[in-house]
Write a structure and sequence with these properties.
It is a single chain. This protein is an all-alpha fold and about 80 residues long. It has three helices and no strands. It is a multi-pass membrane protein. Keywords: Membrane, Photosynthesis, Photosystem I, Thylakoid, Transmembrane, Transmembrane helix. InterPro entries: PSI_centre_PsaK_sf, PSI_PsaG/PsaK, PSI_PsaK, PSI_PsaK_bact. Belongs to the PsaG/PsaK family.
Length: about 80
């Protein structure tokens, strides 16, 4: 049995964009930009190193996670203003 509160909340959720290459490019570009900005971290080379990058694995994972959050925010923001 679905609660009436959940049904009321589902009716007020705005439409989100369907997956498209544009959405993927925005999220990927955001992740790469944040990875480049990760050199501003106080200790970016602490821990096991990435094979081809001059950062550690924890720095890489943190940068990718934050990049995805930023990319999703950009996609939802552009959708809400009607640009995507």
């Amino acid at each position: 049995m679905i609660s009436s509160i959940l049904l009321a909340a589902a009716a007020s959720v705005p439409a989100t964009p369907v997956w498209s290459p544009t959405v993927g490019i925005i999220i990927s570009a955001s992740s790469l930009v944040v990875l480049l900005l990760s050199f501003g971290i106080k200790y970016p080379k602490v821990g096991p190193q990435m094979p081809l990058l001059p950062v550690s694995i924890p720095t890489f994972i943190g940068a990718m996670a934050f990049g995805h959050v930023i990319g999703i925010g950009i996609v939802l923001g552009l959708t809400n203003i009607g640009r995507l």
